[in-house]
Amino acid sequence: MGSCTYDFVMDGFEAGGGGMRIHDSALQLKMLEFMGFTEERARAQFGFLMDALEFGAPPMGGFALGLDRVCMLLAGCDSIRDVMAFPKTSSGSDLMSAAPSEVSMAQLKEVGLRLM
C-alpha cells in the first residue's frame, strides 16, 4: 500500500513529477492508521475528507514540469540560478528587490497587523 507517484528525471536531475491523490475513503483511513492515527483521531481530524470521499470523488492526479530545471539541463548549466530571471541568493535574499527588508508601520497597519 502506498501512493502512486511519478518523477520525470533528465540527466540525473528531477525535472518534474506528480501523482494520483487518494480518492477512496477506506484507503485514506488505512493510510492514516499506518501513520499512527486511531480511527477515532482520524475521524476527528479528517472526517470531513473521508465523508466527502464516500460520495465518490473522482480520481485526480497531476504532473508539474520544472521548466527552469529543464532549461538548465538543455543549456548545459550546472546551477538552476544560471537560467532563472530573478534568482535568490543562497541566504534567500533577492538582490533586485532588496527583500527581505524591514516592514514599515504603515504597511503593517494596511494589513491589520502589529508587532508584539
Structural description of this entry:
The chain has 116 residues and is α+β, with helices and mostly antiparallel strands. Helix content is 35%, strand content 17%. The chain contains four helices and three strands. The protein has helices at 25-34, 39-54, 67-75, 105-110, and strands at 4-10, 13-20, 61-65. A three-stranded antiparallel β-sheet has the order 1-2-3. Strand 1 (4-10) and strand 2 form a beta hairpin. The protein is flat. The chain starts with a strand and ends in a 6-residue tail after the last helix. The model has no long low-confidence stretch (mean pLDDT 88).
Short descriptors:
35% helix, 116 residues, 3 strands, 4 helices, 3-stranded antiparallel beta sheet
Low-confidence stretches: none
What is the residue-mean pLDDT, rounded to a whole number?
A: 88
Structural class: alpha+beta
Order of neighbouring strands in the sheet with most strands: 1-2-3
- DSSP strand tally: 3
What is the terminal-to-terminal distance?
A: 47 Å
One letter per element, helices H and strands E, the order comes to EEHHEHH
How many strands, what sense, and barrel or not for the largest sheet?
A: 3 strands, antiparallel
Helical content (DSSP H or I, runs of 4+)? 25-40%
Give the C-alpha Rg. Answer: 22 Å
What count of helical segments does DSSP give? 4
Would you kindly provide a brief summary of this structure?
This protein has 116 residues and is an alpha+beta fold. The protein contains four helices and three strands, in the order ββααβαα.
